[in-house]
Design a protein that fits this description.
The chain is an all-alpha fold. Helices cover 82% and strands 0% of the residues. It contains 19 helices and no strands. Helix 2 packs across helix 5 (112-120), helix 3 runs parallel beside helix 7 (130-138) and helix 11 (278-305) runs antiparallel to helix 14 (331-348).
């Protein structure tokens, strides 16, 4: 436990570095595939993955998080949980196959049948790697996990591009969804060198199963809330409109996914180890929370102001209609930056029941937003989603921290400095946007706008708001150096 801080910081850095590389790969994949394929190709696959994604939530059955959250886990428990995951994966694969004709009938699109069948095998591959991944997470071996993730992502991207170039159309996207899971699972087995034993009764996994069940139900509600928009658009507006909306949604979701993947897993594992040390838990959480807000806030501002150029440069000219959708969805980057860390706090400290209750509120709220905006097409749905989440964010935060070691004042302090810095940087960036509006090519405008945004925000946050010492201390923790004023311990 003494080295938890250093291990956590170094694990976090490994995750962040990997996510930077992953972000570049995602952008490269979006850049290339958006030019090789049509919106209809993306819309067809989205029709299937929106529904099969519900099944994917049950692949882990919440048992990966249950393994990580436990103070100690036995070999018998791991083996039993592994076979539970396999049984769930096989059931989901069969269910996915059975869903194929239903999707064909619902969307009135015959091509969905074989797309659905092809994606079914992914559930077995995913299930086979759940506990192996959890083992590495418990050990905070995030450099290894990140390397595996990058390798799998590269393999999926490479195969998709080759298939798109050779004329496989939407099948290239099917390959990009399936390949990373298979590659990742094989690598996890090789690295961990753990072979599960036979399942056993009376191994004490019932509490873990209850934990996983509650967490899975929570994830299901959240998934339905955040994906009902795509089902509604696909059914009422067709594959073309869904393709535009889905691509804008994916693009705006990259920062959220990157931050969640980089910080979320490390934060959850570290906070789970500190359940019995409330003061340390409070300190760790607030530092991580402030860091997440500090990153998501300028990203949100930049996305909103430069939406047209971002879509034009990343997706290409045939996707310009996605720019208004992207701009309307951009507030959700910051909103998820505010609420996602609160979920890590609740689940790591055993408040998964409260997390489930918050999901029960979020789901009908955002679905109402979708329905109200649906008559206006993709832009109406995007506005309805962002508006609903904006109205909910403050009550959500207060509910999540009620009765915990985190107070409303703690959250206000963590958010205040990045918020003030962001407001100033937004004004400067908007002025730069107006001044550079006639500059060509678009990528040059985007690069200069990004520089202006980063410099103005960094000056405000680090110098004016005095946050440079916090980040300097974080760097020292990363490098294993003593902080200013701390003695150097020599062996």
């Amino acid at each position: 436990m003494e080295d938890l801080k250093g291990r956590t910081v170094r694990a976090g850095f490994a995750q962040i570095a990997a996510q930077v590389a992953s972000l570049l790969l995602r952008i490269a994949s979006i850049f290339i595939l958006s030019r090789l394929l049509d919106p209809r190709d993306f819309g067809l696959v989205a029709m299937v993955t929106t529904v099969t994604g519900i099944y994917a939530l049950f692949t882990t059955a919440g048992l990966s998080a249950a393994t990580i959250q436990q103070v100690s886990v036995s070999e018998q428990q791991l083996s039993t949980l592994f076979w539970v995951n396999i049984a769930v994966g096989a059931t989901l694969a069969a269910l996915c196959i059975a869903t194929a004709p239903v999707l064909v009938e619902f969307y009135r699109e015959d091509r969905l049948f074989w797309i659905t069948i092809a994606l079914a095998a992914g559930f077995l591959f995913n299930a086979a790697g759940v506990q192996h991944s959890a083992i590495l997470e418990r050990q905070l071996r995030y450099f290894t996990l990140s390397s595996i993730s990058l390798l799998a992502q590269t393999a999926g991207m490479g195969l998709a591009i080759v298939m798109a170039i050779t004329g496989f159309q939407y099948w290239a996207l099917v390959a990009s969804a399936f390949t990373p899971t298979a590659v990742s699972t094989v690598c996890l087995w090789i690295v961990t060198r753990w072979i599960p034993g036979l399942p056993e009764r009376q191994t004490g996994v019932k509490r873990m199963l209850r934990f996983g069940g509650t967490l899975t139900l929570n994830q299901l509600l959240v998934y339905l809330a955040y994906n009902c928009d795509k089902v509604l658009l696909g059914r009422l507006w067709g594959a073309d409109v869904l393709g535009l909306y889905g691509r804008a949604y994916q693009l705006v979701g990259i920062p959220t996914a990157s931050i969640t993947d980089a910080v979320g897993a490390v934060a959850f594992a570290a906070l789970s180890r500190l359940q019995q040390e409330p003061e340390r838990l409070r300190s760790y959480f607030l530092k991580g929370y402030s860091l997440v807000i500090s990153v998501t806030l300028p990203t949100t501002i930049f996305s909103a102001i430069w939406a047209d150029d971002i879509v034009l440069v990343v997706l290409g000219p045939k996707w310009v209609d996605a720019a208004p959708i992207f701009r309307l969805l951009s507030p959700t980057i910051l909103i998820f930056g505010v609420i996602n860390p609160l979920a890590w706090l609740m689940i790591s400290t055993g408040l998964q029941g409260r997390s489930l209750k918050t999901a029960l509120v979020i789901a009908p709220l955002v679905i109402t937003g979708y329905v109200l905006g649906l008559p206006y097409g993709a832009t109406g749905v995007a506005f309805g989603f962002s508006a609903a989440m904006t109205l909910w964010v403050v009550p959500h935060a207060l509910w999540c921290i009620h009765g915990t070691v985190i107070s409303p004042r703690d959250l206000a302090i963590a958010v205040s400095r990045p918020l003030v810095s962001g407001i100033v940087a937004a004004a400067v960036t908007f002025a730069a946007h107006m001044a550079l509006s006639e500059l060509h090519p678009p990528i040059l405008r985007l690069a200069l706008g990004g520089i202006v945004m980063l410099v103005s925000y960094a000056v405000m946050l680090l110098l004016v708001m005095g946050q440079w010492r916090s980040y300097w201390d974080l760097l020292n923790d990363l490098l294993g150096r003593p902080r200013s004023g701390e003695p150097v311990v020599r062996s």
